[in-house]
Structures are given as C-alpha cells and as structure tokens.
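Page 37, continued from 36.
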C-alpha cells in the first residue's frame, strides 16, 4: 500500500496485514484519507449566526446581539454590562438578540437610548398640554405650565393643564357685592343701593341717595342715608306715609282725646297745632303757662267793652247797662237811649201826670194839687181847688 502523506490530519494505525486511519476531530476517513467534515452542511450549529466551515471544525459569525460561546451563538445580555445602555432615564430589558428600554415617564426610546419627550411640541394649539391659557416649558422628563393670569396648573388630572381659577369659590373677592366667575377672571356686580368704586372694581360702595340735592332721595322732609338704601323721616308734626315711605303727611294733633292738651279749642296747623278759647275767654299768658289753659276775658277792660255807659263782665262774656233813666237800645246792645218811664204801664209811679225827661221823668199834678214829698203823689193844695164842672146832666 502506497504511503499517503495526508495522514497529517490523522494518524495511521498498523494492523496485522493492513492499517487504518484514525482521523482527528473534525475529519472523517475516506479512501484511506482523513477528509474535513463540513459541520455547516449538517445543520446550522450556530443557531443565531452564520456557520463558517474550517479545517478542522467551524466557527460562527453571530448575528448582532449574539456572541459565540461553545460553538453556538448565544444571546448577549446587554443589560448585564457595566453601564445601562438606556441611560439614566430608563431600565434596560434584555431580549433575544438585543434589548429594549423601559423608559421613565416623560421619555421615549430612540436608538436604544431613553430620550426626553418634548411635550410642548404640538401642531394644534389646543393639543398643547397647557391648553390655550398657559405657556408650556419643556423639562427633562416632563414639562411645566406657566399659566396665564386667572388660571392655575392642575396636575391631578390625567393630562395636567392650566385650568380656570374660580375666584368666587375661594371666598367672595367682591366686597359688598356678588361674584360671577368668568374664564380667566371674574366680575363683581352690586346689589341695589350700591355701585362699583371708581378706582376699584371689586368693591361695591354705598350710594348716598340723599346727596342729590335736587331730589333729596325722594324724601319730603328728612333723608338719612344707610348702607344700601336710605330712610325718610318727617319733621315734628308730620307722619310718614306707610305706603310710599317718602311722603310726609300732617298729623292732626287735635283728633286725640285730650285735644293736644287744650282746655277748650284745639286748632290744627301744618306740622303743629295751637290752643284757642271760646268767645269770652283768652289763653293764660303768664310766663309759666303752657298756653293751653283759658281764663275769662274781661272785655270791660278794653274800651269799656264798647258800652256807652256801664260794662258788666261775666264769665265768658259781658253786657252793657245804662245809667238811670236810660235803657239799652234795642238796635244796639252797647248803646243807651232815654227810657220813657211814663210808658212803663205804671205811669212812671206818678199818681197823676207823668212827664218824661232826658234821662228821667217827673210827676206833675193838676191845678189845685201839689206833689207830696215823694215826688209822685198829688194832694189837694191848701188854697183849695174849685170843683170841676160836671156839666149838665143828660136828663136834667
């Protein structure tokens, strides 16, 4: 048998009458020759890589994420490296042939690294995280809203944003008024009797209804301003109309049972009253008097009461009387006229003739008679008196 120098991949083993080849690993005997075994033709021993045949054996060209270990491509645990390939903002998650990043909130994975999400970038203004009422400021791993006046940042919702501040729910900012919330603001309105201050539109100031001199607040007499309104009152002697509470009406003091304290007559006047007396009486005028009591008026003290002769005062009145020989005229109770005593039916008290005189009368007697000392009675004179002729008898 011809010697074969190809035994360098194996060794020749002499046998009785023959020999055999003992091939190294990775070779097999063929025609007394050790031939390389192509392991790559059997099945892919690398599994996750390309098998490259070698003499002897093979080696693996592993896919990315794998490395050769023991003639097979095994997964590289990138997460077991000395550093986190995802960076500080996520956790590395190993998978077959690679790894993934479980990024923290506010980050996304790109090129195997956790990168910040710019939440402030939005095509539509309404889709911006802060909405239409705030300015978005991007932060590492999040964002901040610089909210406009009247809005506040609310991070207690699934989508933090700038929300309207209800100023009216945090204690009424409107002093003496009603608060109405608006988007981004509020407004104050005032109740009747108040108006907004000129220099501060969240303060309701009282309207002084009484300050308008032309209307006096609608009051007849006295206008008193109070917070939110005014009240009308009246001067002494008047009362307020209960219907309009503005008009003052005269109080008739004289209708009271005591006639306003007057003894005799009460006279009502606008806003007051005064006392008067019946005819023949006058108000007591003493300094301490209350001008309510009446005393008799002595008419005779003034111009003799208008009487021609005598004035006679009585309680509440007076009368005129005349001197002897006169009597009160029928046509004027103050005037005296001569009294005709001879016509009194008693012949003036004369026994014979009564002669009326101005202011008196006298008695006279017929011839042959003379008056007695009483001035009224006639008696025969001492000289005698001729007998009066009786005339001739009718049948004599």
């Amino acid at each position: 048998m011809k010697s074969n120098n190809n035994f360098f991949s194996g060794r020749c083993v002499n046998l009785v009458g023959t020999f055999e080849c003992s091939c190294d690993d990775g070779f097999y005997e063929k025609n007394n020759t050790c031939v390389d075994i192509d392991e790559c033709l059997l099945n892919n021993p690398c599994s996750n890589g390309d098998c490259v045949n070698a003499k002897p054996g093979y080696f693996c060209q592993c896919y990315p994420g794998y490395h050769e270990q023991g003639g097979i491509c095994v997964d590289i645990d990138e997460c077991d490296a000395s550093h986190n390939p995802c960076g500080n903002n996520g956790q590395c998650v190993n998978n077959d042939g690679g790894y993934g990043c479980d990024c923290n909130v506010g980050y996304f994975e790109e090129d195997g690294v956790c990168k910040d999400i710019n939440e402030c970038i939005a095509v539509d203004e309404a889709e911006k995280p802060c909405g239409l009422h705030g300015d978005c400021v991007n932060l590492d791993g999040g964002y901040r809203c610089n909210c406009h006046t009247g809005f506040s940042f609310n991070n207690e919702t699934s989508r933090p944003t700038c929300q309207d501040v209800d100023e009216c729910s945090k204690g009424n900012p409107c002093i003496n008024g009603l608060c109405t919330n608006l988007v981004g603001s509020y407004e104050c309105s005032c109740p009747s009797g108040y108006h907004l201050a000129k220099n501060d539109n969240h303060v309701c100031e009282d309207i002084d209804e009484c300050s308008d001199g032309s209307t006096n607040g609608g009051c007849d007499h006295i206008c008193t301003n109070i917070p939110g309104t005014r009240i009308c009152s009246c001067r002494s002697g008047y009362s307020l109309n209960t219907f309009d509470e503005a008009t003052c009406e005269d109080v008739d003091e004289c209708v009271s049972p005591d006639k306003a304290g007057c003894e005799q007559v009460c006279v009502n006047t606008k806003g007051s009253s005064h006392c008067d007396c019946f005819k023949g009486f006058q108000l007591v005028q003493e300094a301490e008097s209350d001008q309510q009591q009446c005393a008799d008026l002595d008419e005779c003290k003034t111009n003799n009461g208008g009487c021609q002769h005598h004035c006679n005062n009585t309680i509440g009145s007076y009368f005129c009387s005349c001197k002897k020989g006169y009597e009160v005229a029928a046509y004027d109770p103050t005037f005296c006229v001569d009294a005709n005593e001879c016509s009194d039916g008693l012949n003036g008290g004369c026994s014979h003739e009564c002669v009326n005189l101005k202011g008196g009368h006298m008695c006279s007697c017929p011839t042959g008679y003379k008056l007695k000392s009483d001035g009224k009675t006639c008696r025969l004179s001492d000289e005698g008196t001729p007998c009066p002729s009786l005339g001739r008898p009718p049948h004599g």
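The longest strand covers residues 200-206. Flag for discussion at group meeting. The CA atoms of residues 262 and 292 lie 5 Å apart.
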